[in-house]
User: Fold SGNH hydrolase-type esterase domain-containing protein from Rhypophila decipiens.
Amino acid sequence: MVAPTTLLSLLGLATAVSAQTNTTRLRYMPFGDSITEIVCWRSKLWNKLQSTEWATVDFVGSGKTENNCRDTKYDRDNEGHSGFLAINIANQNQLVGWLQRNPADVITMHLGTNDIVQQNKAVTDIIAAFTKLVKQMRDSNPKMKIVVAQIIPLGLGNFNAKVQELNRAIPTWAAQQNTTQSPIWVVDQFTGFSGSSDNRDGVHPNDGGDNKMANIWYPAVVRALEAAKADKLALSGRQRSSQIEAERQ
Ligand SMILES: *[C@@H]1O[C@H](CO)[C@@H](O)[C@H](O)[C@H]1NC(C)=O
Ligand SMILES: *[C@@H]1O[C@H](CO)[C@@H](O)[C@H](O)[C@H]1NC(C)=O
Assistant:
């Protein structure tokens, strides 16, 4: 028979562990350019998560800008930077500091539009920047769960051939970069999105475009959160075993 004191301390331990797990809110960083910053898909994504076990997920980032979403409830924190190029963010190591200030378990990345529109950068150079950014994400958190977008089309100029060239390169690149502890999931924000009728200004999503984007992000972000939660549970399980082991001695 187990001594009552042992039972009690085990019960106390179990309570402590579940309390600890429940207070460990998962952290999600929406990372990108203006298509992450001055938009409302973050509001829509947050609202979709409210009826799930992910209602308490903490959106993180250094900014709170959006596109007048008329939503006072959602967590506006994000790491969207209007006008920024993936190549410049990578070259200037900006993500390193952003993740230091706001560490994350899950990150979404929608980048490349400004590289193409402003400076007609080569797809190979944009992809090289993505590689550096993924490395910086993993330096910050070796178990970072990463969701990368094939980016939305534009409704102005003649940029969509280049956008599609970038989008075609992303799945192969992501598969090469993929690891078990830090998976990358690619989501297709291009297909089914109209550069003219789903954008308000040819570049940024209108309400319909925000809905489409949130609906595409949602299942991938949920899968990433599930993977991040599994890591935390495995971690608290290991902590519990070593604690029980320590109490036996
Ligand atoms: C968190 O708390 C809820 C209820 O308070 C409980 O049902 C759930 O099992 C807890 N989660 C974990 C992982 O312990
Ligand atoms: C990366 O691996 C995960 C499984 O860990 C898989 O679900 C995902 O599709 C892979 N990503 C790519 C781009 O192959």
Observations:
- Residues 207-248 form the longest helix (42 residues).
- Residues 43 and 74 are 6 Å apart (CA to CA).
- The pocket of 2-acetamido-2-deoxy-beta-D-glucopyranose (ligand 1) is lined by residues 18, 21-22 (CB under 6 Å).
- The chain has one domain: 27-248.
